[in-house]
Amino acid sequence: xxxxxxxxxxxxxxxxxxxxxxxxxxxxxxxxxxxxxxxxxxxxxxxxxxxxxxxxxxxxxxxxxxxxxxxxxxxxxxxxxxxxxxxxxxxxxxxxxxxxxxxxxxxxxxxxxxxxxxxxxxxxxxxxxxxxxxxxxxxxxxxxxxxxxxxxxxxxxxxxxxxxxxxxxxxxxxxxxxx
Length: 179
What we know:
5 helices
């Protein structure tokens, strides 16, 4: 008997919620592909190109250093028979120190550019959020979803290109720091 009453109350509540709540209008929902907006932002693309250009000489120098280190390793290996055990161990220790220094330099190089990209992406996201706030108020949007957080939606509610155009009109402060 109690179970029957609970079921009846449950169905009444569901019925009430279903029929008496404000229905969501598709015009009050928008979808944004934030990665699309970031990756197609003109200033972000310019930053990536600047980074790529800045890396060219460094990568060439790294390649030369790597070839020199490989050559040193081959020389150490070929002189293994000639050198005393102590001299061979010293050569290996010296070589390993050079390898560690080279690895540290490569890591510092990579971290420098990752930090530049991360800092700039964060700046873009902050500006996207500000644009979205204004856009949502202007268009009276109730909900804006990221394209990765839904299964399917009509292209008519996708505002990615609109936000991208507004982002491209902004002049962001890019302080690219060469390595």
